[in-house]
Design goal:
heterodimer, A: alpha+beta, Nucleotidyltransferase, domain 5, Substrate Binding Domain Of Dnak, Chain:A, Domain 2, 5-stranded mixed sheet, 16 helices, 27 strands, B: mainly alpha
């Protein structure tokens, strides 16, 4: 006989994933068996490129498969979406100029969206796909049903404002995930660094990622991690280093060939990838070569870049990171000498010049023993462990990076919560009416440090409605502003005299409303993932056709001017590429395309010289004329 | 409503050191931070959010000597009223002069002079803070608190003025 069941077994607490949703790549980690673990992909790589490609004729492609499509389908392959999220077009004009895909202003949402040509997608959707990929990777690695993984901790730059945090949470909602906590990246890094450390100390986390920079000063005491101050810039990162290389080389290419190479989206995508590669090489080598060929446009460009040159190009960006360090130390009432340890986080801290600059500011080398790319994800997993109860007696106490204020009628800001206040935090403010019988009051909430409303970021227009009609100035509306532990704003209002809870409507300045999220959620996941191999074959064939077209166009010239051996090689590769038109073997097609590209370099150089000669001739003619 | 001192469970005195205030926050945080209620009901989570917000505000109040002083006066039912304080004429004269010098230094873009002026203001602030601490020590245990109150309020007023002057001189 079975014993009656008195109570149900306590349910094994649901696993919470820790996700580092990065500008250039993302990671997923879990806390299990007393430690954090980053989950790798089938290829053994822990990083999932934060790239999503939306082919015209199929399901979205995410991660490294999307990276392969960058050059082929530049207008529909979206990277660095994190730079756009929760932003308007005017916030990010400078960046948009160098992106191969098209970013436009959405009147309806007052935010930057991506125009694919046949449809418009939001940065939130792009992030949602990446979050989904993270979840799917976790499900696969942990041998769990993907639908059972619903709860996540997501990290964001400490300097993300309310709109950017809200947008990140919306991304998760779109992906069908519930955000248990939004954690600042440097704070997460400190957690991964300092958990179970015996000594109490003060640390600075210097976090230079792909697109954002944060610096945080923390006090570690018996596994309680208290952020004292944070500073940063959501538009400063390794992308800027890439762009510096790209802009210099593009300018030289224009000088040499007369072609405005940045005009073509595919060239922009290619130059960016080459620039990133050069930057990476310069982290371990004295010099690196920038090589760019485009037979179609007649460009063959080569240039050696040594570390000194690269250093000069990035000085302004590195200087900005140091300025933020000084500000954060000031706000934390600390000096470089009172800090016990400096932790480097983010792939961009691999750049030797960045390391050296930090060491100089703090008079000592920074700690680079930890993997700067994985530490944030591991911190997110530990935070997930804290929330789930597996990590006992550890706690994160974070701050809000920006002051919160109310816009006055004169256009100035009255601050109600100062930057670097510990969160959650709240402030109360009283409002009244200006006209007899007035039943609604409007006001603006801003985030930022500047004196004037227009120089700060407007979070939204708030409207207090349902105020009982009274003489002007009589109603006393108490509004409570609550910044929660995620650093996000909640507003509550009550008319104190009548006790009527005024209803409050919040118009988000940037972002999506709930209904929009719901409708997007409905269509977002209808398309099943297409077989990646099929996708690759389609893509390789269009790449093959592109190169063939260029070679055919200049065939006559090649035959007449190339050396015999070069011509034969090109001819052979052309024939091979033509013959493989019906193949579905991705590897074979790739080999053919690579061979053809290599064989066409000589042709590209020939075309380049031709352009250069013409330019010289033209100059002589004009000299004569003048 | 509970005072900042009560909320964090620290002694009701002006002379607290920052590490004790931080330790108090850590201890209430371990109990009340919303992270501790992640798997609890929505109502419990909301309650924790509000509790922790109050603790954080209390912590910020106690860490700032001027706000701590005002909170302390409230506890002793002697609310601080900046308008009801007679200013020390000597102090006012000093400030008038310093303000003029600050103005000139800014006009001439003379950072050396400006830094020196700010440095001196900071030193003066430190000195007056030490004085305030001393006054509070006596005042907290005095039998007749109203007697020394005007002096306390005057010093507090001066410190506020110094604080604002330093803040606006950058």
């Amino acid at each position: 006989m079975k014993l009656p069941i008195l109570g149900q077994e306590p349910q094994a607490s649901e696993l919470i994933l820790g996700i580092d949703l990065g500008t250039t790549h993302s990671l997923v980690a879990v806390f299990q068996h007393g430690e954090s673990r980053v989950l790798g992909g089938d290829d053994g790589n822990n990083l999932i490129p934060s790239v999503v490609s939306f082919p015209e004729d199929g399901a979205p492609v995410i991660g490294s498969a999307a990276v392969e499509r960058m050059q082929l389908d530049p207008l529909r392959t979206i990277y660095s979406a994190k730079r756009l999220i929760g932003r308007s077009v005017e916030d990010i004009e400078r960046e948009i100029a160098t992106l191969p895909y098209k970013v436009v202003h959405s009147e309806k949402r007052d935010m930057a969206v991506i125009d694919l040509g046949d449809r418009v997608i939001t940065p939130q959707e792009v992030s949602a796909h990446i979050l989904r990929a993270c979840r799917d990777r976790a499900a696969k690695q942990l041998k769990l049903d993907a639908d059972s993984l619903k709860k996540v901790v997501i990290t964001v730059p400490a300097y993300f404002d309310d709109a950017q945090r809200q947008a990140t949470r919306r991304s998760a909602a779109l992906a069908g995930l519930e955000v248990m906590r939004i954690v600042s990246e440097p704070t997460a890094a400190a957690l991964a660094y300092g958990l179970n450390k015996k000594e109490n100390c003060k640390v600075v986390v210097f976090d230079l990622g792909g697109g954002t920079f944060d610096v945080s000063v923390l006090e570690l005491h018996d596994d309680v991690f208290r952020v004292i101050a944070t500073a940063g810039d959501t538009h400063l990162g390794g992308d800027d280093f890439d762009r510096a290389i790209m802009m210099h080389c593009a300018a030289e290419i224009r000088e040499q060939s007369g072609v405005d190479v940045l005009a073509a989206p595919s060239a922009r995508a290619a130059l960016r990838m080459i620039s990133e590669n050069v930057k990476k090489q310069l982290s371990s080598n004295e010099e690196a070569e920038f090589v760019y060929h485009d037979a179609n446009a007649g460009i063959a460009y080569r240039r050696m870049i040594d570390w000194r040159t690269f250093q000069n190009w990035i000085i302004p960006h590195v200087q900005r990171t140091l300025d933020h360090c000084v500000n954060a130390l000031h706000d934390a009432k600390q000096t470089p000498d009172s800090i016990d340890e400096i932790i480097l986080v983010g792939g961009s801290t691999r750049v030797p010049f960045v390391k050296a600059a930090v060491a100089q500011l703090f008079n000592r080398p920074a700690n680079d023993n930890i993997n700067p790319e994985e530490v944030v994800a591991r911190g997110a997993a530990i935070q997930a462990g804290i929330l789930g109860g597996e990590v006992k007696n550890a706690l994160l106490l974070d701050v809000t990076p920006l002051s919160l204020g109310i816009g006055t009628a004169e256009g100035t800001v009255s601050k109600i919560i100062n930057r670097n206040s510990a969160i959650p935090v709240q402030a109360k403010e009283g409002f009244t009416t200006y006209v007899d019988g007035q039943t609604a009051v409007k006001f603006t909430i801003v985030q930022g440090e500047r004196e004037l409303v227009k120089d700060n970021r407007t979070l939204g227009e708030f409207e207090l409605r349902g105020i009982p009609p009274m003489a002007a100035g009589l109603p006393q509306i108490g509004v409570r502003f609550h910044l929660d532990a995620n650093g996000m704003l909640n507003v509550f209002a009550k008319e104190e005299k009548s006790g009527v809870g005024a209803s409050i409507s919040i118009e988000p300045k940037h972002g999506l409303t709930d209904t929009e999220v719901e409708s997007m959620l409905a269509d977002a996941w209808q398309n099943a993932e297409q077989d990646l191999e099929t996708r690759r074959v389609i893509d390789l064939h269009s790449q093959r056709k592109n190169v063939l077209r260029a070679v055919h166009k200049h065939q006559k010239m090649a035959e007449e001017n190339l050396g015999k051996e070069q011509w034969q090689e090109l001819h052979k590769a052309t024939l091979a590429a033509e013959d493989i038109a019906d193949s579905t073997d991705a590897k074979a097609i790739k080999n053919c395309v690579d061979d053809l590209e290599n064989a066409s370099i000589a042709l590209a150089e020939l075309l380049m010289n031709d352009v250069a000669n013409n330019a010289v001739k033209n100059q002589k003619v004009s000299d004569l004329n003048s | 409503m509970a005072s900042a001192f009560e909320l964090l469970g620290v002694p009701v005195t002006f002379n607290l050191n920052e590490s004790d205030i931080n330790a108090a926050l850590r201890s209430v945080g371990l109990q009340w931070h919303p992270d501790r209620f992640a798997c609890a009901s929505a109502a419990e989570r909301e309650h924790a959010e509000e509790q922790m917000a109050e603790f954080n505000v209390a912590h910020a109040t106690l860490c700032d000597p001027l706000r701590r002083a005002i909170a302390l006066l409230d506890v002793f039912s002697c609310p601080y009223d900046p308008n009801g304080v007679n200013a020390d004429p000597e102090f006012l004269m000093d400030m008038l002069e310093i303000k003029e010098q600050l103005h000139d230094a800014k006009q001439n873009n003379d950072s050396t002079v400006l830094n020196k002026l700010i440095f001196d203001l900071r030193k003066r602030e430190q000195h007056e803070l030490a004085q305030l601490a001393q006054l509070f020590t006596e005042w907290e245990t005095a039998n007749n608190r109203s007697q020394d109150l005007p002096q306390l309020q005057q010093l507090l007023n001066q410190l506020h003025y110094l604080d604002r002057t330093i803040e606006t001189s950058f």
